[in-house]
Design brief:
399 residues; alpha+beta; 6-stranded mixed β-barrel; two-stranded antiparallel sheet; elongated
Length: 399
């Protein structure tokens, strides 16, 4: 039997039972559509979270007080964590390859101005924050370089805070009360939006020393170091560890590079995308059961046809190939329909819910399409094998 004959008989069989073929392909189509839609949402969330982190730059090293790894026995009072101080910040600024360093403290306070009051986040930062976080100033200027221990009472408002407190009027030069202190506004930040649920626009930025006193803290929550792109990150981390260990007497802090954070986050999100894809692929097994059922029924209905083919000289392997081809065609057509349906649903979600990031990973989509063909092949194997083993004489008697 020639390949053209295989193709012609397969197409005729599919067309002769349109409704049955449609229902069979529909099971596969729903499974493929589910895989494409779920992986599109998973991949969209993956990209969204990574973009949220990378918007603040990728050449940043963060130092937090305390060690994330524990080993050995208890060391009593000698194991207490020494806070990170503004002195540590100044020491790190002098390291080779470091462009800027900043200690950060944050909290929630009430801000008052012009008879209006609003509870916002107050961020204690350094003068180089716009460079470190890639966060530009919209009007005025940012906090000027100052004595880090005795800075002036100056503040920069987030875009939303400025709008809520001053409306359309310019807040530059105005006085605002932040907790118990009074600050002069010198700038307004550009709108930045939310970062993982934190509204960067609904905040007030003041010198770190003021927030240390405001929240009665001995040290900063975190030190962020901006380094030049050509700097060897590993060498810089070792230099930071040596410097702070010399100042603290022991390694009681944790250094994390932006690359490490992104790598860990990317791994977690990749597992999430794979998991939702695997969840959607459960529907494909439902489609496989449908193909197995339909092909078993088809073999019983076409027993006489099989007998005639065998009587005309068709070998068992040729009959096997004929029914396997029909199962693969049905699953492939269903897969293509599901691919189009899933991509269309993803586009609709993107259009009507723009806040939900959706991106179709075509690698997963094409893999699911190949999987649908493989499922058709496996599901059709048992009925095809039964058809190939039919005795020609007994099959013709079934007429």
């Amino acid at each position: 039997m020639r390949w053209a004959d295989y193709a012609r008989l397969t197409v005729r069989s599919v067309r002769a039972h349109r409704l049955r073929s449609l229902l069979t392909g529909l099971g596969i189509a729903v499974g493929i559509a589910a895989v494409v839609l779920l992986t599109s949402i998973g991949e969209g969330i993956h990209r969204y979270v990574l973009n949220e982190f990378t918007q603040f730059g990728t050449t940043v090293v963060s130092i937090a007080p305390g060690r994330t790894k524990t080993h050995g026995a208890t060391v009593g009072i000698f194991g207490t964590t020494r806070p990170l101080t503004l002195g540590d910040v100044r020491a790190l600024e002098r390291l080779p390859g470091v462009d800027a360093a900043m200690g950060m403290v944050s909290g929630n306070v009430e801000v008052k101005a012009g008879g209006r009051a609003r509870r916002v986040s107050v961020m204690g930062v350094g003068a180089r924050m716009p460079e470190i976080y890639r966060f530009p100033v919209a009007s005025g200027r940012f906090l000027p370089p100052d004595d880090p221990e005795r800075p002036r009472a100056l503040a920069v408002l987030g875009a939303r805070t400025a709008r809520e407190l001053f409306g359309d009027a310019s807040p530059l030069g105005a006085r605002v009360q932040v907790a118990d202190g009074r600050f002069r506004v010198v700038g307004v930040m550009a709108a930045k939006g939310n970062f993982l649920g934190f509204d960067l626009d609904d905040a007030v930025y003041v010198p770190t020393a003021w927030t240390l006193a405001m929240f009665d803290r001995e040290g900063v929550m975190e030190i962020d170091v901006l380094y030049a792109p050509e700097t060897d990150t590993g060498a810089l981390v070792r230099s930071v560890e040596r410097t702070l260990t010399a100042r603290h007497g022991r390694l009681d802090f944790t250094v994390t590079t932006q690359a490490q954070m992104l790598e860990t986050l990317g791994s977690v999100l990749s597992v999430l995308t794979f998991a939702v894809g695997a969840l959607g692929s459960i529907s494909l097994f439902v489609g496989a059961i449908g193909i197995l059922t339909i092909m078993t029924i088809a073999v019983r209905e076409r027993t006489a046809e099989i007998g005639l083919l065998r009587a005309l000289g068709a070998r068992g392997a040729q009959v096997l190939g004929l029914f396997l081809g029909e199962a693969v065609v049905l699953s492939a057509l269903g897969g293509l329909a599901g691919l189009a349906l899933g991509a269309g649903l993803a586009a609709l979600v993107r259009a009507f819910v723009p806040s939900l990031p959706v991106h179709t990973p075509w690698t997963y989509a094409l893999l699911s399409l190949a999987l649908s063909a493989a499922i058709g092949l496996l599901a059709g194997a048992l009925p095809a094998r039964r058809a190939a083993r039919l005795d020609p004489v007994e099959a013709l008697r079934a007429e």
